[in-house]
UniProtKB/TrEMBL annotation:
Name of the protein this chain belongs to: DUF4267 domain-containing protein
Cited Pfam families: DUF4267
Transmembrane segments: 9-29, 49-69, 76-94, 106-125
Upper classification of the organism: Bacteria, Pseudomonadati, Bacteroidota, Chitinophagia, Chitinophagales
Record's keyword annotation contains Transmembrane helix: yes
Entry annotated with the keyword Membrane: yes
Native source organism of the sequence: Niabella ginsenosidivorans
Keywords for this protein: Membrane, Transmembrane, Transmembrane helix
Length: 136
């Protein structure tokens, strides 16, 4: 029975990491499209500094998640997922405070918080159980 939760957590973590890499790259390649998908519209006058900062942040986070996942550093992955909840939570705040926000643009940020909570908790709980089990 343990295989299904493990596979589910692995798959969701993989999808999360790959999605973050995609989003990060998109902020570099198509900054205005990515910004709109994020949920805000800024008038930059051709200066895409915000978009590039957002892009490298997401790219880095996605790479870190995949590195920890593929090197089986599950406790570290769980900690990173839980701590990183502050990023989509802050993003949610940025989007909702934007004057012309769309409610639909909030869902990805809420989903990211829920994934971080669920997956982070799963990895921490299950790495703790393995240590306790091995010690017996």
């Amino acid at each position: 029975m343990q295989k299904i939760p493990q596979k589910t957590a692995f798959t969701l973590s993989l999808i999360t990491g790959l999605t973050l890499i995609f989003i990060g790259i998109r902020f570099f390649v198509m900054p205005l499209v990515a910004e709109t998908a994020f949920g805000i519209h800024t008038h930059t006058g051709g200066d895409y500094s915000f978009q590039y900062i957002k892009g490298i942040r997401d790219l880095f986070c996605g790479v870190i998640l995949l590195l920890l996942l593929f090197t089986r550093q599950y406790k570290a992955l769980g900690l990173i997922l839980l701590v990183s909840i502050m990023i989509p939570a802050a993003d949610f705040g940025v989007v909702i405070s934007h004057p012309d926000f769309e409610a639909a643009k909030l869902f990805p940020h809420v989903i990211a918080v829920l994934l971080g909570l669920g997956l982070g908790s799963y990895y921490l709980i299950n790495t703790s159980k393995k240590k306790d089990h091995v010690a017996l």
